[in-house]
Amino acid sequence: MSFQSPGMLVGLLLLPLAAWAYVRFERRLRRGRAAFSSPAVVRSVAPRRPGWRRHGPPVLYALALAALIIALARPQATVAVPVHQGTVVLATDHSGSMQAKDVAPTRLQAARQAAERFIDEVPNGLAIGVVAFNDKARLVQSATTDRDRVRTALDRIVPSGGTATGDAIEVALHAARQTARKGAKPPPAAILLLSDGHSVRGRDPLAAARDARRAHIPVYTIALGTQSGRIPVPGTNGARTQLVPPDPQALRQIAQISGGRAYTAQDTKELKAIYQHLGSQVAHKHEKREVTAAAAGGALLFVLGAAAMSLAWFGRLL
Question: pTM higher than 0.70, yes or no?
Answer without folding.
Answer: no
